[in-house]
Amino acid sequence: MRILFWGTPDFAVPSLRALAEEGHEVVGVVTQPDRPAGRGQKMKVSAVKQVAIEEGGYPILTPDRPRGDEFMASVRALTPDLSVVVAYGHILKPEVLELPPRGSINVHASLLPELRGAAPINWAIARGHEVTGVTVMRMVAGMDAGPILFQTEEPIGPSETASELTARLSGIGAEALVETLALLQLGGVEEREQDHDLATFAPKVDRAIARVDWDRTAAEVANHVRGMDEVPGAWSLLAGEPVKLFRAEVRSGDAGGGDRGSAAVPGAVVRADPGEGLWVAARDGWVSIGEVQPTGKRRMAATDWIRGRGVAEGDRLD
Fold first, then answer.
1. What pTM value is reported for the model?
2. In the chain, what percentage of residues exceed pLDDT 70?
3. What does CATH list as the number for 2-198?
């Protein structure tokens, strides 16, 4: 099958590789333009573009927006049978979706109709879901609203972060894509309409959303920190300076000796011990933080931060 592949981040790379490994003809790759990144703001290519250059030698299109006569002519010239979209980063117009004779399909990292939108993995963890998965769907004009072609469930580990789950689901998504394409070629796919009344949404996460609200339950705080890992990264202010927080777990027991822990206000540091780690009060308990990244410094173990006197018992995160 002649396939036009659309994708941008690391999550999409296993799917691109799987297409070639299964003998499909990738006629081109559409990905986001190079962007400035890092402290030096050097131009950086997308993960998908890098692989397309190094491993495929495919024609590569990098439009600012996937629309317009010139872009449509470029896509039409590639004569794809089908478009496969995996975390591309733009909503595609109907004229783009309908250009290939066999339409367009998408690999989405949730059990649709749950968690439609840009950040399903982040929100699955942040909202405390215990199960998620991958859905391959036919694309329509509505966001993640098309018929389901293939779906597979996956448990979320109790301490799994968004970064870890992303890596795991990227491989599962590639396997689901290969299976779906095989069924499509055999004519064995039953397209199942979604129940739109059950839809939930997973909007893009940003720095404002990633800020920790310590006046939530300990479980909610821990889920939030794991869900915002690694980008944008959960964070709080300490003495007016932002600190990113990672590896959060709910803790029980006496956090600070006597009744200091139970009486602590949300955000208070109730334990800062080089041997036992960093514990912070939430609304109904305590959350341990395994790693931190203070402003202008590398990511480090919270115990190292404590040894360096970056934080002490009695401080407050806000």
1. 0.94
2. 96
3. 3.40.50.170
